Amino acid sequence: MITKTKAVEIVEKLEAMIAGGIIAEGVKSYQINNRQLENYGVGELLDLLKYWRGRMIEERRRARGQSPLGPRIAVHC
User: Fold this and answer.
1) pTM strictly above 0.85
2) Phi, psi angle pair for 20, to nearest 5°
3) pLDDT at residue 4 above 60?
4) For residues 21 and 48, what is the distance between their CA atoms, to the nearest angstrom?
């Protein structure tokens, strides 16, 4: 069985939140006594998704024994 990394799990949850599949877990903040609730906006979710996809790609590269920064690109001047 393949275990999912933290980054993969977060990416999957964020994609579900953006698609509208998870409402309760999209809570940004809340207050108990005054009963205030604030959800993440789509822009914030997309920013989080971009960050965690990058982390997921780094994890996959490390698992393959590659540099987490990606391939080297030679530049000749």
Assistant:
1) no
2) 90, 10
3) yes
4) 17
